[in-house]
Fold:
Amino acid sequence: MNLTRQLLVFVSGLALLGACRAGADEVIKAVKKSDNYIILGGVIADKTNNLKGKLVIEIQTTAKWKFNEKAPVVVDIEPPANLKLAKKKLRKKDVARLEKKKCRFEVPYEAPAKGTHQLKIKFDFVICTDTLCQKKRFTLAYPLIAG
Structure:
């Protein structure tokens, strides 16, 4: 193998290793499961400051269910007074990723100290099959763990 090709293989390997490592700092798990949707929550840690990161909120539909393109998706977050969130009311325009079966928000946060910070999250969205739509409206308590 010539030197250019070896260098290309080495750089590609480093990029792949970096991509795998970047995903390892994301911790996301199911918070609520229903017959037609799953709510996932978690954080993406900031590599330079363990009191900062991104709160991840993801709504996934199951089976034949999908998001209605015209209906709003609203997620309203009530953090404790000492936790700073970049945005507390999230809508479709704020999504990090929107697909037919997935709506993902990533909200930067800064915690005052290590530990658990209790959030109250209100959800309001519509999911549909080809013949039926359902409005979902509920509130969840979510423990954001910083540090």
User: Anything to note?
Assistant: The mean pLDDT is 86. Helices lie at 3-24. The chain has one domain: 26-146.
